Amino acid sequence: MWRGELAASLVVFLVALPLCVGVAVASGVPAELGLVTGIVGGLVVGGLPGSSLQVSGPAAGLTVLVYEAVRTYGLSALGVLVLGAGVVQLGLGVLRLGRWFRAVSVAVVQGMLAGIGLVLVAGQVYAMGDVAAPGGGAVEKVTGLGSLPGAVDPVALAVGGATVVVLVVWPRWRRGARFVPAPLVAVGGAAVVTGVFDLGVRRVEVQGLLEAVRVPSVDDLALLSQMGVVGTVLAFALIASAESLFSAAAVDQLHDGPRTDYDRELVAQGAGNVVCGVLGALPMTAVIVRSAANVRAGARTKASRVLHGVWLLVFAALLPGVLEVIPVAALAGLLVYAGCKLVPVRELVVLWRGRHRGEVVVLGVTALAIVAWNLFEGVLVGLALAVAKTAWDISHVQVETEDQGNAGVVVRVVGNATFLRLPKLLDALEGVPQDRDVRLELGGLRHVDHACAAALAAWRAGRVQESGTVGEKGELEGPAGPDKVGRGGLAGTGGDSREGLEGQKLERLGAQGRMATSRSTS
């Protein structure tokens, strides 16, 4: 058993090493901080309850947000942001809110990851050619791509391009990929070629593990009084939590061991981010690439992910100089590949063919909003659109008219009557002949909001006014004589009308399942 856990930990270590360094460089922070987050993810989160097999560390999904935060508030503020996010996650876990992250629309989450992937690719294409990315947001980076052909270093671009090719091709050799992960082959091979041929490309700068660690000061903590900082902290916490818990759901499908306790996993992620914040490192999430490698390598317990943290610590302490031979273009190629993988092309095709095109719209709008504005605002746009789509989908109301000859006309309203379908409801009701007896049956309504209830009451009042007057006892006096109207015209037949109409206390609600009007005068 221990032999299998040891082998799995080495595989995860080899996958995590280039990713930790690459995410740190792309985030605009020292490479060692990525290793620190990976170490904490193994030694701290790895030993805590929650998910047994998923592995945590710095994730490409937060790269864009971290880069913008560091550029706005400075590297010294990173620890405070991550510490605050960890505290928020701890609170969410203690309040047992972890399971509610599963209620977020999958289209919004996939759109969020797709938007992050597009922004990541747009930024790292410049690094592949050893070109400084233009300032500003993602839009500036996208519009600046046209100037790249004349500015890139062809050698660096060749190194980055070759890295991407290896990442695509190597996994097809399953036997080799089983023992040596593609990221290590791609980045390691680029480092070897660059060193052997002494290629003049930019390489990773190393300043030492202890020098990179920076504990937040009291002055740094004062930043939490700024609304912008608080918003960034919440964005860190919510996005890291969502990515971790969705990763846990995916990992659970890869093995037959114990399932994830979402609340405990959220507490574990929060504890890890608190430690990362104290050390001034990058925020962490559970990472599906490392987690899948861990499961496929044969891991069965938490030991493998804890050991992978040990190997990262040993490497960072004894061999930090090795990082200096890694070309930045190779790491950029690694992240371009990771960014492309975040765009769910297959899922889009499946949704489109399955006639779930509304989900495709939500996904696409979320991704484009992130590219156009920023991550936080883009997710809010996606959530609002998902809620609007759901409201539209469930607002199906059907009006059925049955002519019963001398007995008059029966109008049945079935479904969910909300203001979104109010025009359709009114058109159907107003199309009922004015010279016939009418009985309105609402027993098929599962829900009616205030707007539709008021419209139904107004329609009833209009029919009554055209036919006669209503007395104090509810009798309708018209040319044909008195006809019982009653106090309950808008009720559902299945029980208490207040339950059928979502507790709305409207007069003339009863339990007879119909609303009657008198014989209209012709």
UniProtKB/TrEMBL annotation:
<keyword id="KW-0812">Transmembrane</keyword>
<keyword id="KW-0472">Membrane</keyword>
<dbReference type="GO" id="GO:0055085">
    <property type="term" value="P:transmembrane transport"/>
</dbReference>
<feature type="transmembrane region" description="Helical">
    <location>
        <begin position="148"/>
        <end position="170"/>
    </location>
</feature>
<feature type="transmembrane region" description="Helical">
    <location>
        <begin position="221"/>
        <end position="246"/>
    </location>
</feature>
<dbReference type="GO" id="GO:0016020">
    <property type="term" value="C:membrane"/>
</dbReference>
<dbReference type="InterPro" id="IPR011547">
    <property type="entry name" value="SLC26A/SulP_dom"/>
</dbReference>
<feature type="transmembrane region" description="Helical">
    <location>
        <begin position="266"/>
        <end position="289"/>
    </location>
</feature>
<feature type="transmembrane region" description="Helical">
    <location>
        <begin position="73"/>
        <end position="95"/>
    </location>
</feature>
<feature type="transmembrane region" description="Helical">
    <location>
        <begin position="309"/>
        <end position="339"/>
    </location>
</feature>
<feature type="transmembrane region" description="Helical">
    <location>
        <begin position="107"/>
        <end position="128"/>
    </location>
</feature>
<feature type="transmembrane region" description="Helical">
    <location>
        <begin position="360"/>
        <end position="388"/>
    </location>
</feature>
<feature type="region of interest" description="Disordered">
    <location>
        <begin position="467"/>
        <end position="522"/>
    </location>
</feature>
<dbReference type="InterPro" id="IPR001902">
    <property type="entry name" value="SLC26A/SulP_fam"/>
</dbReference>
<dbReference type="Pfam" id="PF00916">
    <property type="entry name" value="Sulfate_transp"/>
</dbReference>
<protein>
    <submittedName>
        <fullName>Sulfate transporter</fullName>
    </submittedName>
</protein>
<feature type="domain" description="SLC26A/SulP transporter">
    <location>
        <begin position="3"/>
        <end position="362"/>
    </location>
</feature>
<feature type="compositionally biased region" description="Basic and acidic residues">
    <location>
        <begin position="496"/>
        <end position="508"/>
    </location>
</feature>
<keyword id="KW-1133">Transmembrane helix</keyword>
